């Protein structure tokens, strides 16, 4: 695939105009006729039960239609049906309005439905609910030593491998030793689009459900199970998603509420959450980690220990891969990894961009920096000395790994060799200057996915798959794939997604959409191509009569012989000659497990950052970042670069700003709003440079793409933390690094 017309080209988003003109509609923007509005009432207490709900006063307000709570939720939602979703972890998912029990602060306890949103919100504010509280536990610090190992986790969870070598003895014998704890608090996803569902009630009682989600099919399966609906009864539509980052991988409670109210009231209902309520479900878990490293005199790693303990809810065992990366990122024969959970009275944590790796690699990569200083080595040189050419966790070679090139190309672009290794040695005016670096690694995965293509007689190609677009560029790169394989102009291709009537695809997450849906689109285009060749051969005087599929190619709207391009048929003419209005094909793509299971499949990156810190004020700016990424084929350098830019901004945010603070007296997050939960603004962002290192890989999938949505974030928080040490001599091991830690 060296000569491509579209794949690998820096094209602008095909959905860009719709987004900037407002033509793109989000779940809570479908103003269907007869719409009424639900407002969710959230529990002010963290644990206990509801003893009384007095809805009489609220129901007497003109325009209030109903108050739903556990007292009157209809049987249809209470039957012992499964509330599982595709990415549910072990345990039993939270069931909204199911009973009187309060399991976490901000738990939804009632839904007020009214003619207007404002009335519903007002009525919710005066609804009288009484609670009986019992003591809650929300502080992970009190759970040290009480963690447990999760049995089974959600899809993709891999328990840490058993210890290898003699990690305890080799640590004791090591020449240099590091033994430290690394901590970060809870963080909440804050996509621009808040969660909302518009359930449109159609004649005959069917529903069109416009949902904010990362997986329309996941939402559909969820409500089908709960309400006993057929696939036909409830179509879920999600054409645009205003950011997900993992928060939309699982159906959220507003979906349940909107569908419940629509079915009960036989009306179209919208339920949208407020920004404050966005802090009432999944989050990146507060995590305590210890890393112990031992090195030999030559700087080679003699022993590595990494242990993590993080929170989960009482009702589910949320899992993520926090420590496993430490067993495969560097060469080390003596490794011990541990991973434990502790139950608290909080909502279940949820995948948040690069779940597990973002936090696990923060700990590992700061520890690696500490060890580089202890061993008297440059942090980059230390990593190169311990470079892993094989995945020791799996005892398998990598399908491809251009991390060394990321280090070299990133360091050169950044000017790493100008770094004076001594802390506090570099200055610019009254600013302390620090250079820091770190490494990242993420899975290159492919999931089963389907796609359907349809070519009409006017030469337009429609491509459909039930995947989602969370802002990553899916519309664009799938259009590129289809245009590439069928030799059509981009404008002739209409890629459609986010509809449960389309061929099945997994939730958009895990950085697997380009690989999974991309391969499905390619396969569907090739299936269509074979059909078109057969039809072309039936045309009178066809120049392709005896051609095999391998002998032909689709270029510039023509189907032609590779070796004799003059022998060609116009693709549009094939459809017209067929006598049909369109020619269709569909395909499902599966990972080639026989090939893949012999290898470790991963994307890598290396991050270099410069910070400048005002010595007197403690103010910190990340003035330069170079992020060098090896993620296989880059389908579109423009959308891919945007992904990595966003990742770097998030890494900076994780390092310096984000933390949801729990007031343990009330078991409640106190900064659940944009005023007090800080994320960067433009003034916080300076120079960010993204490099893509050439990496070919025909094992990961036929497109050679590894995915770019998550890897770019990795290493950023650690590189900043390491640069802070270099600038100031202060070793910080707890995020976020706010001004108090620098003074
Ligand atoms: Mo990602 S955390 O799989 O949306």
Descriptive overview:
- With 743 residues, the chain is of the alpha+beta class.
- The strands form 10 sheets. A 7-stranded mixed β-sheet has the order 3-6-1-13-10-11-12.
- It has 3 domains: 31-135 and 192-243 and 248-279, Aldehyde oxidase/xanthine dehydrogenase, a/b hammerhead (Aldehyde Oxidoreductase, domain 3); 143-187 and 283-445 and 597-742, Aldehyde oxidase/xanthine dehydrogenase, molybdopterin binding domain (Aldehyde Oxidoreductase, domain 4); 446-590, Aldehyde Oxidoreductase, domain 4, CATH 3.30.365.10.
- A hairpin with a 4-residue loop joins strand 23 (449-456) and strand 24 (461-464).
- The protein has 17 helices and 35 strands.
- The site of dioxothiomolybdenum(VI) ion (MOS) has 11 residues, from loops.
- Residues 21-135 form the Aldehyde oxidase/xanthine dehydrogenase a/b hammerhead domain.
- This is Xanthine dehydrogenase YagR molybdenum-binding subunit.
- One of its GO terms (molecular function) is iron ion binding.
- Residues 143-167 are annotated as: Disordered.
What is the secondary structure topology, with strand pairs?
Elements: H1 16-21, E1 36-42, E2 48-54, H2 56-59, E3 64-69, H3 75-78, E4 90-91, E5 101-102, E6 108-114, H4 117-126, E7 128-133, H5 167-173, E8 176-184, E9 187-188, E10 196-201, E11 207-211, H6 216-227, E12 234-237, H7 253-265, E13 269-272, E14 283-284, E15 287-295, E16 301-312, E17 316-317, E18 335-343, H8 357-374, H9 379-385, E19 390-391, E20 396-397, H10 403-414, E21 426-428, E22 431-443, E23 449-456, E24 461-464, H11 474-486, E25 493-496, H12 513-537, E26 552-555, E27 558-561, E28 568-570, H13 571-578, E29 582-589, H14 593-596, E30 602-614, E31 620-630, H15 637-656, E32 662-663, E33 668-669, E34 687-692, H16 716-728, E35 734-735, H17 739-742
Parallel strand pairs: 1-13, 8-35, 11-12, 16-18, 24-25, 31-34
Antiparallel strand pairs: 1-6, 2-5, 2-7, 3-6, 4-17, 8-15, 9-14, 10-11, 10-13, 15-16, 19-20, 21-22, 22-30, 23-24, 23-29, 26-27, 27-28, 30-31, 32-33
Residues 214, 244-246, 249, 351-353, 355, 509-510 line the site of dioxothiomolybdenum(VI) ion.
